[in-house]
Amino acid sequence: MTQTIRVSKAGKNVLTESNFNNYIFYSDKNTFKILATGLLTSQTVDANPKTFTVAHEQSVTPNFFAFCEFPDGKVATPNSKDYTYQPYSSDGYGQFDVEVDATNLYFILTKPSSNYNVNIRYYLFEGSL
Amino acid sequence: MTQKIIISKAGYNILTETNVNNLIFSSDYNTLKYATTGTINVTGNYADYYHTVAAVPPFFPATYWNRAEATVAHGLGYTPYFSGYMEGTAFRAQTPIYFGDFIYSGYHSVYADSNYLYFTAVFNAEYSTGTYSFTYYYRIFKNNTGL
Questions:
Q1: Complex ipTM
Q2: Contact residues, chain B to chain A, C-beta under 8 Å
């Protein structure tokens, strides 16, 4: 008999529930494990573009995700322009991009006008690209 | 002795397996924890455009640039790990999403702070009257980004 460990959401019966989304944990399914995370604070974007490099110290090119906080306090996901962006406007700070290779994470920000500071949070997940 | 909870994939020994990819669960590693999911519409009036580009006959019509926004209060008190998706005519794509051709373009994105998610649509259109609506989906996790 195959044995599993299941934790259902409140009100759901672990013995009969067939919708996977109603489980908090189900040992038949992998969990997306966070291998490492890091925070870069008060990084100054003083070139266009500006690249901040972080060694990820993984043996493979890892799955990743990241967030960037612009000076207005709004947090953006990779490939985003800042919150104030709109064409034909002089508002805005720049765009946040992320790249990865076997050695490093590269956080790339554009600087259309003045220097600005950002904070960046990144996550490394299991598996490789 | 440090105690752990480990569940390996079938065929792997939890006492000796060192490759995290062969584990279903390991208490050595954090995971993303769901807080909530949802859907929201960003709506507006074409008449509220903020910029217009004049027509260049015979090929280019006048276009009107719009920016609209909707917010969702997440109530966490910190900026969470989040993801956003935008619904197109025949697809759902992770934000940010850019699209365009030689006349029309659009930019759809999702942002967060310690109180809200912000869904923004920036685009141009041929219209200066009527209404528009875009649908977004989001997932919020309880993981604190520390931002």
A1: 0.92
A2: 7, 9, 20-21, 23-26, 29-32, 50-51, 65, 67, 79, 81-84, 95-96, 105, 107, 109-113, 118, 120, 122, 124, 145-147
What secondary structure does DSSP assign to chain B, as a single string? -----EEEPTT--TTT---GGGEEEETTSEE--EEEEEEEEEEEEGGG-SEEE--BTTTB--EEEEEEEEEEE---SS-EEEEEEEE-SS-EEESSEEEE-SS-EEEEEEEE-SSEEEEEEEEEES-SSSEEEEEEEEEEEEEE---
In chain A, residues 40-59 whose CB comes closer than 8 Å to chain B: none
Domain B32-141: give its CATH code: 2.60.40
Which of chain A's residues have a Cβ under 8 Å away from the Cβ of B112? 67, 74-75
Assess whether pLDDT exceeds 70 at residue A1.
no
Domain spans of chain B?
1-29, 32-141
Asked whether the beta carbons of B68 and B117 are under 8 A apart, the reply is no
Distance from CA of A65 to the nearest CA of B (A): 10
Per-residue pLDDT reduced to its tens digit, A89-105: 777 889 999 999 999 99
